[in-house]
Amino acid sequence: ETGVTQSPTHLIKTRGQQVTLRCSSQSGHNTVSWYQQALGQGPQFIFQYYREEENGRGNFPPRFSGLQFPNYSSELNVNALELDDSALYLCASSLGLAGGPSEQYFGPGTRLTVT
Amino acid sequence: AQSVTQLDSHVSVSEGTPVLLRCNYSSSYSPSLFWYVQHPNKGLQLLLKYTSAATLVKGINGFEAEFKKSETSFHLTKPSAHMSDAAEYFCVVSEFNAGNMLTFGGGTRLMVKP
Question: For residue B49, which of A105, A63, A61 has the smallest C-alpha distance?
Fold first, then answer.
């Protein structure tokens, strides 16, 4: 069983640029969630994708967008980068079930630095 | 709306002594509760979860947590700390009607002294 993987591991961008982060979900999982973890804080929910459709969104502006592909892998795109976007971006996969919340398995994260 | 408060940002214990990490939650519905651990430069690992079954939940590496609805608490304990337990710990709440969104507390950094 392959765990959640993310790429790249580290990234440095300049303010105003755009960035794409990638996530491969755990085998058999159909739901991907993205979180932003600023230094010294707990992760904050950005959005979730279930079977290729957005299934919930946190308090993040529209310049944060995402995609989920038929193989359930996912991308997080951030446009017009700001200094405050510097953070660890975590992807989590789970098996979405009608019965309620299921365990989410996290990848190692992508460390984004905006200068 | 759901929220989590971790009452201590830092906890320091000696190796071999008990660990107590405190967590209070707020939820409009019957929540699911989790504890995750994050070691430096590593991803989040699930320690244990509560999903309305037994109120005392056992997790990995000797950790356990007790769900107390009357106190809206979900404290994490371990009888004897090990040096490898030093890490950041997050208490997390999730509600089904919130689409499986996880809401994290601010974290507690556990330090273990030899």
Answer: A105
Q: Which of B34, B46, B99 sits opposite A56 (nearest CB)?
A: B99
CA dihedral B92, A90, A111, A57 (to 10 degrees): -90
In angstroms, the CA A33 to CA A96 distance is 11
Give CA–CA dist B9/B105, Å, rounded.
Answer: 10
**Cross-chain residue pair A43–B51, CB shorter than 8 Å:** no
Instruction: Give the residue numbers in B contacting A (CB under 8 Å), as ranges.
Output: 32, 34, 36, 42-46, 49, 51, 90, 94-96, 98-107
Let me know if A95 is exposed, middle or buried by CB neighbors in 10 A (0-12, 13-18, 19+).
Answer: middle
CB contact under 8 A, B46 and A105: yes
Q: Which chain A residues contact residue B57 at CB under 8 A?
A: none
Residue B105, pLDDT > 90, answer yes
Chain-centroid distance, C-alpha B76: 5
pLDDT of residue B54: 82
| Lowest mean pLDDT, pick from A47-51, A82-86, B12-16, B26-30 | B26-30
Cis, peptide link before residue A101, omega less than 30° from 0: no
Query: b/e map of A56-71 (b: 16 or more CB within 10 Å)?
Result: ebbebeeebbbebeee
Contact between chains at B103 and A100 (C-beta distance less than 8 A): no
pLDDT band at B94 (very low <50, low <70, confident <90, very high): confident
